């Protein structure tokens, strides 16, 4: 197949798990003999061609007010204007139309559309090419992509999001196939009225950086227990909740926090943390970080589309405490490979921390089951097999539009 992959960013520009998965998918399908090309946005005007790990990559200068990934945060009004232009970006539609005319792909695989907007669907449909849309976040219902605002999960779409996403659900009807990276992620969009006529699938992400280990690493020499968080230091990740609940337990243990965030927010977190027990270790490689801790904690208070960190932690034989938000519970099952906690019950996180700190047999039992419980998710080849099936089925069904939604299929 001749495939064009569309995403907001592409390596080496990586801000989250979506970029990691897109790169793994593209390079993997190229190894399998498919002709692949990537089109992403970039900070420089014009259309620039390059190669990354042997993959042909086009980077299109973003036709909006600014490049959002340069490290500076514009003011509120400027950000609002950016999102207003991103509701339907005709300039980026024209860029995509030009690339489609030149590359003539068999199929376009859309991932994150921020910067491209849903205008991308119109460009692809006008070219007569089938569309597969992979859902990594809530961008189609929320410009911020996370349904999280003012420190809490949005239970319903706010007025500004409704205005900026008006007609998006209707436009999604032209997508041939939609793939959710979790059952939660797919259901969230379908329940909101999206993809009424699309073929629907769930394909779980793989864990491309999880090293293969047949057995858990040897137990460390006697030392205080180490709990660990790794990820973006942003309010939706629940780090402040974690620090509060960890310190409330007064344990002979330490909490390691790895990741980066805006300086103001990170400084606030440090101001409430006891430096004797809570250590900010900066940006770390996840595999190396997991080898230094005994329990991983993913305390998200905003919904997680999937939870790649939780999967990687299980792959390294760690028990994992996760919140019940989003797709995390599809990876970590309470009492099997970790424990659940709920932001609706703030003390439930502290209770889970205390249980694992005081009950070594429970901790060891969860750790012993961790990797086996997620083994089917880990393989890159499994993910590639499932995406190949989805893409081939989409091509075979080309031109066939469904009159009603079909059931979710987990491949």
Would you summarize the structure shown here?
The chain has 411 residues and is an alpha/beta fold. It has helices at residues 17-31, 76-86, 90-103, 119-126, 159-164, 168-171, 183-191, 239-249, 263-272, 286-290, 308-315, 347-358, 360-378, 380-396, and strands at 2-7, 35-42, 47-52, 55-61, 107-110, 131-135, 148-149, 152-153, 177-180, 199-202, 225-230, 253-258, 278-282, 295-298, 320-323, 338-341, 409-410.
Tell me the layout of helices and strands:
Layout (H helix, E strand, L loop, with lengths): L1 E6 L9 H15 L3 E8 L4 E6 L2 E7 L14 H11 L3 H14 L3 E4 L8 H8 L4 E5 L12 E2 L2 E2 L5 H6 L3 H4 L5 E4 L2 H9 L7 E4 L22 E6 L8 H11 L3 E6 L4 H10 L5 E5 L3 H5 L4 E4 L9 H8 L4 E4 L14 E4 L5 H12 L1 H19 L1 H17 L12 E2 L1
Parallel strand pairs: 1-2, 1-5, 2-4, 5-6, 6-9, 9-10, 10-17, 11-12, 11-14, 12-13, 14-15, 15-16
Antiparallel strand pairs: 3-4, 7-8
Helix pairs in contact: 1-14, 3-4, 8-12, 11-13
Give an overview in words.
A 9-stranded mixed beta sheet has the order 3-4-2-1-5-6-9-10-17, sandwiched between helices. It has a 6-stranded parallel beta sheet with strand order 13-12-11-14-15-16, with helices on both faces. The chain is α/β, with parallel strands linked by helices. 45% of the residues are buried. β11, α8 and β12 form a beta-alpha-beta unit. It is globular. α3 runs parallel beside α4, α8 packs across α12 and α11 crosses α13. It folds into 2 domains: 236 residues, Glycogen Phosphorylase B (Rossmann fold); 152 residues, Glycogen Phosphorylase B (Rossmann fold). The chain is built from 14 helices and 17 strands. The protein is 36% helix and 19% strand.
